[in-house]
């Protein structure tokens, strides 16, 4: 048996770029040689039996360990969820029935080669993944290095758009994510989550990040350029748009009753060694689309008691903004957008809170003026911190945190909201919303249905993708010229405001940003003036 000092699993699903990641890690010479060594499809298994000269199932795992381990003792394997039965069967055979194990992959790997680590490779845009899955499984073109001549090319060219089949594949890829997520949660393991979209934009940086997660030294490491090319094309984009339009149309019609057909995963390709290809170009950035054009993602609020706390979509208006002369504040579009970027949790009781400046929890006095028990405002932490029990346990999709903050642009005299980021895709505990009193001995009143918190889902690791840098504006001559033109225009406009009957007076204010146009009237490639968030649907039994 090959000795391993570290082992890891690339957990994934079809059409996530897993072969690209596996080959990139293998190219370092330090991160094992992760491949799909286990599969439920016989022709794929037979490929590895021939390649590794495997005769007996009891030797299968040991042969795979030898093939997938680099000289430093690191073993890697790539596993798609539907391949789980195959790896479990081989591990049990290697362990002679796996006595004393609960039979899960995690426990079997621990018994055979030690504590495993996990890299979870996913795709954010599930619809493009489903379309890619449909095309590959029906044509045999699984990778860009597969032959594109003869029957494969003909099959791809003649493959028809099929809404129902793509929908089934969409269900499948979402199910795979849910199953992996539950697996990680059950075993309470630390996972490095990588999104395909981030990976292809930051290829080498993602590989180095994976090495760091695995505690593999990256000094002097060379990551081979990718040999696989992006397979998505204009046809994929056309089908995506077509699917979304049909889904939108279907959502406006009555839904027929009847059980949905069970979708089975199509065969995955064998891990062959195709000839090298040229590095693929970086994919074009996708434009964001409106909510109606994207498959919905779940955001679930589990109610913790019969006392129903208000949970509403944030609106763009604010009383203090309404009170500004000619509602001037609404001319700031970024502020208006922030006002509605999330959902609001509302207060259940009217109460007054006063803090005497002390450090103990008892120095914060709460006087309830309406409502019945249980109370939703308490003093726990001391130092003038007011705590709200929000009344819900939130669940976001895998890979999404919940940014919990105060109601945007809604200041309150004498007290300020405290903010937090919650990993709401896995934790079974709820959170509290806290406010810090800033003026001792100053009574502060919270009204019934006043917003006490705002929640905004955010992708985990998204901020870490950015590489901040400072440059001189002169380094971008085109941008500098536009900025100077805008600044001169703004200066002229402000000066003309003093002239009676001037165009500036009639216009009142320049509207370039509000209209989504540059100083030269070029339209922005994408511009939003409002957010269209869904209300929480009450599905309590």
Q: Which overall shape is indicated by the principal axes computed on the Cα atoms?
A: globular
In spatial order, strands of the major sheet run 6-7-18-13-15
- Number of helix segments? 16
Helix content: 25-40%
Query: What number of structural domains do the residues give?
Result: 3
What would CATH call the architecture of the largest domain? 3-Layer(aba) Sandwich
In round numbers, the mean pLDDT is 85
The class by helix and strand makeup works out as: alpha+beta
Radius of gyration computed on alpha carbons? 28 Å
Q: Tell me the major beta sheet.
A: 5 strands, antiparallel
Strand content: 15-25%
CATH superfamily of the largest domain: P-loop containing nucleotide triphosphate hydrolases
Distance between the first and last residues' Cα: 55 Å
CATH class group of the largest domain: Alpha Beta
Strand tally is 18
Low-confidence sequence ranges: 255-293
Annotated CATH topology of the largest domain = Rossmann fold
Describe, in short, the structure shown.
By secondary structure, this protein is of the alpha+beta class.
Descriptors:
Rossmann fold, five-stranded antiparallel β-sheet, four-stranded parallel β-sheet, 541 residues, alpha+beta, Deoxyuridine 5'-Triphosphate Nucleotidohydrolase, Chain A, globular
Any overview of this molecule?
With 541 residues, the chain is α+β, with helices and mostly antiparallel strands. The chain is built from 16 helices and 18 strands. A hairpin with a 6-residue loop joins strand 10 and strand 11. It is globular, with a radius of gyration of 28 Å. Residues 255-293 have low confidence and may be disordered.
